[in-house]
Amino acid sequence: MTSQNEIPGKVNDRKIFLAVSVFYVIAVLIRYLTNKTQLLSGIDNTFIKVILQAIGPTIGALVAFRFFQIKPVMTLKGDFKNFFVPLAIYWLLPVILIETTAYFSTSTLPRVAVITILVYGLFEEIGWRGFLQQALVSLPKFVRITLITVLWFAWHLNFEMSLSNLTFFLILFAGSWALGFIAEKTNCLLAVSAIHSLNNFFSDSNVYKIGVLSFLLLVWVLSIVYRNKLGGNKINSYLPVTLV
């Protein structure tokens, strides 16, 4: 086992650069194959097809973690003592609220769609926050957020020069800041993936959806504040990359 202190800084920097490069090449390559080619044309299951379109960052992260022997900081339950707590707050609660709202407003139960959006967000976040934010944590905060935003934006493979794309870039920048903050506070992939998914849940808003969105944000903010007061969060728990 090799500790970070036993490796000269320049070697660490080189390893992190290579790890990030490998992660990103894999993430973009899979994104291109699943979104810009006919690779998935033979798959009829919409759930599987959509999930595969987001799996690149996860595979890239897993390869980088394994090949470069980087110990992940974030996990599904994060700093929560009990896995059921973040599962209930960040996944079960939005599923129940969105299902209930949809049933009373449109008489539908979009269960598969809701779960698809959550899993899609999780596969992205394993890469962007679970790996990339950890790998770049030694950079100044603004530089780190900007770099993650640029890489995240480019990963979508939509380079049209338009106002909507500029708006999307700004949304990703705000998301990189907010999700990065949640990641630092909780180390919980379920939390960041759920908050990531809000943008997809409420892409077309109405009064019911705005109410659900507001309630979810209130519950999630209060849960983080409550955990901090109990001392459940370590402010500096999001440590630099650890080589094992």
UniProtKB/TrEMBL annotation:
Residues 112-202 form the CAAX prenyl protease 2/Lysostaphin resistance protein A-like domain. The keyword Acyltransferase does not apply. Keywords: Hydrolase, Membrane, Metalloprotease, Protease, Transmembrane, Transmembrane helix. It comes from the Bacteria. The lineage of its organism: Bacteria, Pseudomonadati, Bacteroidota, Cytophagia, Cytophagales. The keyword Nucleotide-binding does not apply. One of its GO terms (molecular function) is metallopeptidase activity. The chain crosses the membrane at residues 16-34, 46-68, 80-98, 104-123, 135-155, 167-195, 207-226. InterPro entries: Rce1/LyrA-like_dom (IPR003675). GO terms for biological process: CAAX-box protein maturation; proteolysis. It holds the Pfam family Rce1-like. This is CPBP family intramembrane metalloprotease.
